[in-house]
Design goal:
Length: 137
Amino acid sequence: MLKRIHHVAIICSDYAVSKRFYVELLGLTVKAEYYRAERQSYKLDLLLPDGSEIELFSFPHPPPRPSRPEAQGLRHLAFAVDDVAQCKQMLEAKGITVEEMRIDEYTQRRFTFFADPDGLPLELYELSAPMSPSQEI
């Protein structure tokens, strides 16, 4: 049966811009990079620390993504983080616009959204809910 998500595939409009965003700004590790001449397409395999992957593709003249907020298809890609506030601050220091933090009404965990260079919604989702002052030792 299913074990975990192996990879998410993303088609970008500008390969160099998206490669820089995911590698330099988000800090993902390059596993492999290929140029497929017959398709005029790059494929970049990126690793997250848990072994899951993002495949970044480029194609000549890809159609634009449907508009937000609730277009049919993939809604967003969420990354698990230890501290949403810290990650938000680090992304903003790199010039990335990040929405205000929110609290998941069901789990009480903090989350926020930002976008990749093509407007793909990306989410930071905290692994555990922060302790309230009454829970601290």
